[in-house]
Amino acid sequence: MIRIFPAHGIAAVALVAFALAGCTRAPAEALGTLEYDRITLPAPAAERIVDIAVREGERVEAGARVLTLEHTRGDAQLAAAQADVARQREALDELRNGARAETVAQARANLSAAQAQARDARAYFERLRPLGGQQLVSQADVDRARAAMGNADGQVAAAQAALDELRNGARPEQVAQAQAALGAAEAQLAAQSYSTERLDVVAPRAGRVDSLPYRLGDEAPIGAPLAVMLVGDQPYARVHVPEPLRAGIEVGDAATVLVGANGERRYSGRVRMIRAEPAFTPYYALTGKDAARLSYLAEVQLDDAAALPAGLPLRVQFDVVR
């Protein structure tokens, strides 16, 4: 049996259905793109690129060589640092070992010669002094003989001190200074060795090579990005949250990520970051309805989406809006 409703009854049913549909709240959405963490491999020196071992889009493991810079200058500086370390080490060993036997023997011989000259000068003075008292020689000759004797005694004292210095060896302070100089040279060698090793640019983490801004033969300035890598086990959604939704979203909230222009791929995720400062227009420049144009950068970590490439468009539906 077919029941026919009055016209006003059909209108009432339609009105109720429309009201119920209006009570169903559409999920809060934000638009963005799929991203991975990006790391930059800067140029350690202004050297020419002599080899590129990877291509853009290629996946590499941690420690894999990405490209190589010219080593000529770095190798020369490393060799100079190694030579300086060797020189400082030999200087320290020389102080610790003391004087050679031949050097000590030479100092002893110099002392003997000075003692012989001193004895001769003293004997000459002793012979001349009585003659001066008898006025057989002038007093000036006696004074010169006395001065020569004193000078000879001084030469003996100097030769004796030189011999004692060789026998006693280097002072502890000299050894300490030589040790400090060697330590400084070794530190400089370590720094130069590290700088030379960095001329072989390697991947610090496993990931995918996203960009190689420079080509073979280029000479990038120090600090310029030689390569940009995408790293991380899972991608994340980078979206701009409209101002009306900002107050209801917190770090840790669950979200649904629809990847693709039509949202054909669906993934679950959680908010891992949301900025406190708005993007684009500063908040103090907007009032009233214009404030709704503000957007806040947020990141939503995806689960089980490691195979997706970066740059895909997406929509994020936030499950909880307070």
UniProtKB/TrEMBL annotation:
This is HlyD family secretion protein. The keyword Signal applies. GO terms for cellular component: cell envelope. Residues 78-124 form a coiled coil. It is found in: Cell envelope. Its main location: other. PROSITE patterns: PROKAR_LIPOPROTEIN.
